Amino acid sequence: MPTIQARGLTKRFGADVLAVDHLDFDAIPGGVTGFLGPNGAGKTTTLRMLLGLVTPTSGSVVIDGHRYRHLPHPTMRVGAVLEASGFHPARTARNHLKLIATTAGIPFSRVEECLDLVGLSESGNRRVGGFSMGMRQRLELARALLGKPDILVLDEPANGLDPQGIAWLRDFLRFYASEKAAEPEGGRIVIVSSHLLSEAQLIVDDVIVLTAGRLAAQGRLADLLVGTKRAVRVRTPDAERLVQALQAASLPAAVRDGCVVCEGVAPETVGPIMVENRIEVHEMVSSTESLESLFFSLTGGEGMQVGHAAGPVGDYRRFNDAPKDSPTPPPSAGAIGGQ
Amino acid sequence: MTRLLRAEVRKLWTIWSTYVIFGIVVFIDVAFGFLVAFAPGGRHGGRAGIVPHGSSQWFTNVFSVLDNSRLLALVLGAIIITGEYRHKTVTPTFLAEPRRGRVVIAKLGTSFGAGVVLGALTMLTGLVIGLVLVGLGAHSCLAPAGVTQGMSQALCSAKHGLYYLASSHSMWHDWSRIAPGVVLGTGLFAIYGLGLGALLKNQIVAIVVGLIFTLVVESIVAAVWPTIGEYLPGAAATALEDAARTSFGGGNTPLLPWWGGAIMLLIYGVALAVVGTLTTLRSDIT
C-alpha cells in the first residue's frame, strides 16, 4: 500500500521567503487527493520536495518511508506531471518518451501504450516544438504513466487542456485512483494540485488545503463540507423590505449585487418570511456547501471585497480586490469568506 | 549505468544540434584546410617562406587546421549538460534518475565518446582533404595542353608519379602523427566542456567562457608565464599531438609530454564536473 508522509516539511528561499512552513500531511490511497491553496501557498514547492527536485530546508516528505531519491525504481513507483517540466523542442514526442523509458529500464512497447492512451500515437513522430499546450500536457501525462506507478502526482494538470481534455482527464484520474482499490495490497494515491476549485470538486475525495505554506485543512471533502455555511440569495424588487423583515427575525441579511443575501440559513427559513410579508420573488437560490466556499473560509479569502468600489480604476474590480484564484465568485462565497 | 549511458547517447542523436556541430566541424576542416593549402606562404610557413606543395611541411600546415575541432567538442560537451537546463528537460531527467551524480557520470562518458567521434570525423575529413590535395598536385604536374610530344609526355608522367609517391608519403606520415592526438584531444575537450557546463549551468555563459578562455586567456597566460601556460587545457590538448612538437610553432611554447597533457585535460574536465555536481547541480529545480 503506497503512503506519502510529510513531517515538519519546511522550505525557505533566501532570507525572506518561507514557502512551506512546518507542513505535516498524509496522503491516503483509494481516491483522488486535491492539493489546494491560493497562488504562492507552497503547493508546487511541496510537490517538488516530494519528488526530490527541491531540497527541504528542514523536515521531510517520504514515499513508502523513503525519500524519493532512495526509492529503488522511482519511475515505477511515482509518476509526476509538473508545470515547467520541459521538452527539447527538436525532439519528437516518441523519442522523448523513449529516453525516459531507457533511463528507467522500461520496454519501448510501453511507450506506444502510453502514447495511445493520451491520444498522441499519430503525432508521436512530430517534434514537440510544434505541439500545443494541451498536447504537451498529455505528453507529460504519458511520461508520468510509463512506469505504471501506484502514486501519481499532478501539478495543475488541467492547464492548457480544452474542456473535452479536462473531462477526459477527470474520468481518467477517477478510474486510475480506484483501479487497484480492490486488491489486498493495492490502492493508489493520486494527488492533484489545482486552482480550479469547481473542477477539483468534481474529482477529489480528499483535500489538503495550504495557505501561506501551512496546512489549513486536511480530510475527506465530504466531512469538511459539513461544517461550511450555506446561504440564500433572493432576487426581488422589494429588496429593502425583505432585508428589514429578515433583520426583524434576527437573521443576518444584506443587499449585494442587487440581491438579498442571507447567510447561514436554509431556504426553509427564508421562504415563510417572504410569504408572510407578501414579497414578490423573481429568483431564489440556495448556495449549498461548495469546495469554493470551504476554500475561502479556510484561506480567509485574503483581500476579498464584494461589491463594486468605483475608485480611480473606474467600475472594475482590481486584481488585489478580487478573491485569489477566483476572479468572479458568486456573492455567497464572498460573503462567507469575508467573515 | 548502462541504461543512463544509452539514454544520454540517445539524447544526442535525437536532436539536430548535434548534427549541426558535426557539420560545422566538417565545413571548417574543408574550408580552412584548402585555404591553408593554397594560401601563399602557408599558415606556418614563416616570413617569406612559401612552403613547397606536396612537402611534409605543407601537409603539416594543412592538418594543423584539424585540431580546431576541439573547440566544437567543448561546445558539444557544454550543450550536453546545459541543454537540459535550457529546455528544462532536467526535470524529467532527474525524476527518472534522482541520483544526480550518476547522471553526470553518464554525461561524462557520453561527452567523451561524442568528442572522440567528432575527432575521428575530423581526421577522416582531413584524410579526404589530404587525398584530394595529393591528387590535385599530381594532376597539376601533367603536361599542359598542347604538348603532345612523346618525350615530354614521358617526362611528365614520371614527374607525376614521383610527385604522387613523395606527397602521398608525406601526407600519410603527417596524418598518422596527428590523428591519435586530435581524436583523444577532442574527446577530452568535450569532457572539459561538460565540466564547464556542469559548473556554470547557463548554456551561453558556459560556451562563451570556454571559448574565450581557450582562445584569448590561454594565449595571454602562455605568453606571460609560459610555465603556467603549458598546464592550461588548450596547451595540454596540443601536447597530445606528436606533430606539435616538431612543427607549427612548436618549440616556441613549452609543452607537456603527451600523457601529461591527457592527464591535465582529464583533471580539468572531471574536477569541474565534480565541483559542479557538488554545487550547481545540487540546487533546486524549480
Structure description:
Chain A has two domains: 4-226, P-loop containing nucleotide triphosphate hydrolases (Rossmann fold), CATH 3.40.50.300; 231-287 and 300-337, Alpha-Beta Plaits (2-Layer Sandwich), CATH 3.30.70. Chain A is 33% helix and 24% strand. Chain A is built from twelve helices and 13 strands. Chain A has helices spanning 43-50, 74-77, 93-104, 108-117, 133-145, 163-179, 197-203, 221-226, 239-248, 267-276, 291-299, 331-337; strands at residues 4-13, 17-27, 31-36, 58-63, 78-81, 151-155, 189-194, 206-211, 214-220, 231-235, 253-256, 259-263, 283-287. Chain A has a six-stranded mixed β-sheet with strand order 5-6-7-3-8-9, sandwiched between helices. A four-stranded antiparallel β-sheet of chain A has the order 11-12-10-13, with helices on both faces. In chain A, helix 3 (93-104) packs across helix 4, helix 4 (108-117) packs across helix 5 and helix 11 (291-299) runs parallel beside helix 12 (331-337). The longest helix of chain A has 17 residues, at 163-179. The radius of gyration of chain B is 22 Å and the shape is elongated. In chain B, helix 7 packs parallel to helix 11. Chain B has one domain. Helices cover 75% and strands 0% of the residues of chain B. In chain B, 45% of the residues are buried. Chain B has helices spanning 2-13, 16-38, 56-64, 69-86, 90-96, 100-140, 150-200, 203-224, 226-229, 233-239, 258-278. Chain B starts with a helix and ends in an 8-residue tail after the last helix. The chains are: A alpha/beta (339), B mainly alpha (286). The interface between A and B is medium-sized, with 33 and 28 residues.
